[in-house]
């Protein structure tokens, strides 16, 4: 049995300015996006991406992630808390970012980028899909360092069951690390390998939707559910699980016709 290390959420301070681990994980995510984006563009030059375009796309994406992720957390998961503490809405460095909200924010950013740069929506999402999961992994590691989003009670004989002392003395699943490994690194490997060869338009995006939705849905069985605006819904599923259902359905509907078309250049 393990005990959470109870990291100091502040990585370092320069005078009155404190730099938190959670914020550094977002910086890691953005750096990985640039590095992997350039590698992906280099191995698939026929897709027509270059370093300047990737940097510009990241600018749009950062705004979409931060604005969408925070609004998703506020509206989908903790509206009561933020209604009582409105000043906390802007305190993104303390944690509290919804993937589903960030996902919608990124889709809006992609649409705006495409309009201003003459790129098709699915052309962009197919390119960035393999670049996203490592950022998700970094975010989950940030959750683990912050000691938030802990797991459900685990069997006492589970070797990696972990006690989160500020919650209780019950051994729990380190669900943040499950998610970092699943929807982070495993999904990255799947998408990185799948996108290495020409695929039909929308196919890579569809694999991301199905892969993320399925892996997140499964991970929620090990994670203490967020209360959400609806709490635990019908069939005993969490708000996040129900938000994953349309992702998987849309992904399947995109994938089936996509794989019947010839690969794009």
UniProtKB/TrEMBL annotation:
Homology family: Belongs to the Lgt family.
Involved pathway(s): Protein modification; lipoprotein biosynthesis (diacylglyceryl transfer)
Gene: lgt
Membrane found in the keyword field: yes
Pfam families to which the protein is assigned, alphabetical: LGT
Methyltransferase in keyword set: no
Name the record gives this protein: Phosphatidylglycerol--prolipoprotein diacylglyceryl transferase
Residues bound to a 1,2-diacyl-sn-glycero-3-phospho-(1'-sn-glycerol): 140
Superkingdom assignment: Bacteria
Enzyme nomenclature, EC number: 2.5.1.145
Record PROSITE patterns: LGT
Any one GO molecular-function label of the UniProt entry: phosphatidylglycerol-prolipoprotein diacylglyceryl transferase activity
Protein's membrane topology: Multi-pass membrane protein
Organism: Thauera sinica
InterPro entries with a match to the protein in the record: Lgt
Function: Catalyzes the transfer of the diacylglyceryl group from phosphatidylglycerol to the sulfhydryl group of the N-terminal cysteine of a prolipoprotein, the first step in the formation of mature lipoproteins.
Transmembrane stretches, start-end: 20-37, 57-77, 97-114, 126-145, 176-194, 201-219, 239-259
Location(s) in or outside the cell: Cell membrane
Major location category of this protein: membrane
Keywords: Cell membrane, Membrane, Transferase, Transmembrane, Transmembrane helix
């Amino acid at each position: 049995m393990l005990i959470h290390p109870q990291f100091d959420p502040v990585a370092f301070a320069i005078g009155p300015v404190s730099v938190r681990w959670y914020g550094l994980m977002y910086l890691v995510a953005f750096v990985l996006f640039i590095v992997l984006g350039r590698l992906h563009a280099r191995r698939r030059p026929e897709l027509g991406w270059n370093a300047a375009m990737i940097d510009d796309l990241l600018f749009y994406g950062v705004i979409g992630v931060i604005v969408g992720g925070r609004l998703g957390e506020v509206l989908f998961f903790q509206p009561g808390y933020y209604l009582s503490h409105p000043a906390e809405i802007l305190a993104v460095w303390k944690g509290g970012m919804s993937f589903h909200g960030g996902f919608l924010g990124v889709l809006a950013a992609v649409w705006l980028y495409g309009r201003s740069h003459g790129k098709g929506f699915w052309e962009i999402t197919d390119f960035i899909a393999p670049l996203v999961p490592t950022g998700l992994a970094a975010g989950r590691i940030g959750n683990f360092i912050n000691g938030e989003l802990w797991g459900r009670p685990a069997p006492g004989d589970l070797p990696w069951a972990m006690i989160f002392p500020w919650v209780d003395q019950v051994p729990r699943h380190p669900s943040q690390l499950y998610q970092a490994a699943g929807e982070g690194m495993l999904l990255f490997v799947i998408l990185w390998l799948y996108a290495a060869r020409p695929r039909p338009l929308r196919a890579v995006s569809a694999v991301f939707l199905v892969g993320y939705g399925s892996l997140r849905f499964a991970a929620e069985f090990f994670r203490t559910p967020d209360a959400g605006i609806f709490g635990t819904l019908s069939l005993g599923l969490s708000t996040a699980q129900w938000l994953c259902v349309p992702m998987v359905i849309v992904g399947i509907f995109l994938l089936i016709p996509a794989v019947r078309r010839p690969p794009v250049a």
